[in-house]
Specification:
By secondary structure, the chain is an all-alpha fold. Helix content is 82%, strand content 0%. It has eleven helices and no strands. The longest helix has 38 residues. It starts with a helix and ends with a helix.
């Protein structure tokens, strides 16, 4: 119970840290181009990941799953850019709807990619989550703006990145490499365009970029430790508390309050995520019971 309690605290810390990182992204997005934030922050994350490995690149940063890691890195670059643009164009809390869809999209993709087909009810949960976006755009697709398109792209590529991470984790245990290589790709891609968009930064803004890198790196470390102490079916619903942090940050720092449509949409996305976790858990229990029944029915030789 003690370990579980620590795990719950770590999940709460993780949601706060991720909301803080998103808040910094929205703050920087108002005055600087995406490459400026990501080139600087990813350089710091790469250095922290390299130092955290306590060895050379030939050690724990070396991976066997080269192509899956390349795909994960590419998807991470696209997702980062897309979320940056979404935060620039949409109210802070609205973006959460699309963040909440990422694990649902990952569940849908897990079948063809990981040979872990989701149960039929998981598809129903995904449909429910997508339905939450209807409340964000009551007028239908005609209400869709550029920010929503960026957010959709971010959710799809973010879900794909999660699936790629799972694919790599099934083949080898290289958690630090999963931080290092995607951020190195982000550094290279954004660094190539940085000279064309660079704007002089004050020491305060540089401090915000450094804080973003530290918070993001810390959040990714914390969530790994939290998932070690807590079952996924407990941790994932708790992560939806990130919306509470995002509403608070949006209200305090950006004078943004969620609309009724946003609240209804978030409720549907959160409910779909909980539904997905519960259904997967109950399905595994049913599978275990069938295996026990089949084993007990098999005559001893």
């Amino acid at each position: 119970m003690k370990g579980a309690g620590i795990g719950v605290v770590l999940v709460l810390v993780y949601t706060g840290m991720m909301a803080a990182a998103d808040g910094i992204t929205k703050f920087i997005a108002g005055g600087y181009a995406a490459p400026q934030l990501f080139a600087l922050s990813s350089a710091l994350v790469v250095l922290m990941a390299y130092g955290g490995s306590k060895t050379t690149v030939a050690g724990p940063l070396k991976v066997i799953s080269v192509w899956p890691m390349a795909i994960r890195s590419g998807l991470t670059v696209v997702a980062s850019l897309a979320f940056f643009m979404a935060f620039r164009l949409l109210p802070f809390a609205d973006v959460f709807l699309f963040i909440g869809l990422i694990p649902l999209i990952a569940a849908a993709l897990s079948g063809p990619v990981l040979n872990e087909p989701p149960r039929p009810m998981a598809w129903a949960a995904l449909i429910l989550g997508l339905g939450g976006i209807v409340f964000l755009m009551p007028g239908g697709l005609s209400d869709m703006q550029a920010g929503h398109l960026w957010a959709v792209l971010a959710a799809v590529t973010g879900g794909g990145s999660m699936v790629a991470a799972r694919y790599i984790a099934k083949a080898e245990r290289v958690p630090m490499a999963q931080v290092f290589w995607p951020n190195l790709a982000l550094l290279v891609v954004m660094g190539l365009t940085l000279p064309f968009v660079w704007k002089p930064m004050s020491l305060t803004d540089l401090g915000w970029v450094g804080a973003y890198a530290v918070v993001l790196f810390g959040a990714r470390y914390v969530v790994v430790e939290a998932l070690r102490l807590l079952p996924a079916f407990v941790a994932i619903p708790l992560m939806n508390l990130q919306f509470v942090w995002m509403v608070a940050i949006g209200a305090l720092f950006f004078s943004e309050l969620p609309t009724l449509g946003t609240l209804l949409g978030v409720m549907m996305v959160v409910a779909s995520g909980i539904w997905l976790v519960v259904e997967e858990t109950l399905g595994k229990i049913r599978d275990m019971r069938r295996q026990v029944t089949a084993a007990s029915a098999t005559p001893a030789e």
